[in-house]
TrEMBL record:
The modification 4-aspartylphosphate is found at residue 51. Residues 124-217 bind DNA. GO terms for molecular function: phosphorelay response regulator activity; transcription cis-regulatory region binding. It comes from Streptomyces montanisoli. It comes from the Bacteria. PROSITE patterns: OMPR_PHOB, RESPONSE_REGULATORY. This is Transcriptional regulatory protein CutR. Residues 2-116 form the Response regulatory domain.
Length: 217
């Protein structure tokens, strides 16, 4: 899942980003509304975690722009005000969910995951294919009943492949969904991660390389 965190309190923004990355999400961070508009014009995000009171361009205007563009991106709006009128106003702007500050990180993560599921074709909460069972909420992976320990990026790549339901996923698509914008697209990070993931999943191999196209399960 690709997430953009837009928050002018840099310590909070960086803490949220770090926590979401530990949950195997690819996260970009910006600290003002103008930078947010720049990012959404370049990258495809599943979810934008959007502070409302932003410098340069207000969070309300960022939300309006996402709606105007007809993007499938879901917006989780944050604000220091928890008044009902503020929540209603935020939702009427086009936000998909609303979370007042301060918030519990576990709740933020659950809401981001729930919104992320709404940007794709609906799938069961637990994904199963070729003897692999993946639970995104619990961050658990099993093969034929045995648990497999994966690093966050390995988990993210496996989740993207599982959600494709047998379709081929290119290296570029994996890079887009599992890594943030600071990753050099010319490295072999995708190939190396897939190789490590394939080894951890064991025999017989379930990740198939499609020459010139990508990977599938």
């Amino acid at each position: 899942m690709r997430v953009l965190v837009v928050e002018d309190e840099q310590l909070l923004a960086d803490a949220v980003a770090t926590g979401l990355r530990r949950e195997a999400m690819a996260v970009d961070v910006v600290y003002d509304g103008a930078a947010a508009l720049e990012r959404i014009g370049v990258n495809d995000y599943d979810v934008v975690v959007l502070d409302r009171d932003l410098p340069l361009v207000h969070g309300d205007d960022v939300c309006r722009k996402i709606v105007e563009l007809g993007m499938p991106t879901r917006v989780l709006m944050l604000t220091a005000s928890g008044d009902v009128s503020d929540r209603v106003e935020g939702l009427e702007l086009g936000a998909d969910d609303y979370l007042p500050k301060p918030f519990a990180f576990t709740e933020l993560t659950a809401r981001v995951r729930a919104l992320g599921r709404r940007t794709t074709v609906p799938l069961p909460p637990v994904l199963e294919r070729s003897g692999i069972k993946l639970d995104p909420n619990r961050r658990e992976v099993f093969r034929d009943g045995g648990e497999i320990q994966l690093a966050p990026k390995e988990f993210a790549v496996l989740e993207v492949l599982m959600r494709s339901e047998g379709a081929v996923v290119s290296a570029e698509q994996l890079l887009e969904k599992a890594w943030d914008e600071n990753t050099d697209p010319f490295t072999n990070v995708v190939r190396v991660t897939v190789m490590t993931l394939r080894r951890k999943l064991g025999e017989p191999p379930v990740i198939v390389t499609v020459p010139g196209s990508g990977y599938r399960i």
